[in-house]
Amino acid sequence: MNEKYYCAVKALIFSGEKFLVVKRSTAARGDPYSWELPGGRLKFKEAPETAIVREVKEETSLDVNCALPISTWTFMKTTNDQVIGITLLCTLRKASIVTLSREHDEFGWITELETGNYQFSKGLAEEIRKWDWKLIKKLKTDFCKNCYLLKIWIPIRLPKIKCGNRKSSLIPLSRKGGLGLIRQSERFQTPSQAFIGMDV
Hints:
The chain is of the alpha+beta class and 200 residues long. The chain contains 3 helices and 11 strands; from the N terminus they run ββββαβββααββββ.
């Protein structure tokens, strides 16, 4: 049995209070006509924060900064193929016009209250419902001012990610009821392990 897995990234890109969604075309690999967040697979040896900037540019022509990972997810594409992914909060580097690649044929800037009007894949729709939007918007506003540590259920080691004028180890969390959050201490400036200890 030839079992394979792929790593992917998706971007939650805000413009003001709205975020970008794109509709898959018939030229996309599967799930035509469904809505999703921009993103795609990592290339070999590519870091997630590098991949998301590249994928967003290729699919939408937008230039973004990778801010924070906000959730992790996985699904089985086929019986033997698994996709493991990270959703990353991103901000626009500058005001730009969206120009779609052939993989998508429509786009929209929407609020979290409008997500029910769009046909997302089942997995993404469930993921969006779990997000703590109030916290995500605070992170969007604050990420250049302060670095935060997001804790995950298991110990995990990540490379440094540039945040403003500093580099910090940023770790995503997905848990019941939203995201868990603690302020990062000044000494937490190197790749380190974090372990969760919170009620859910």
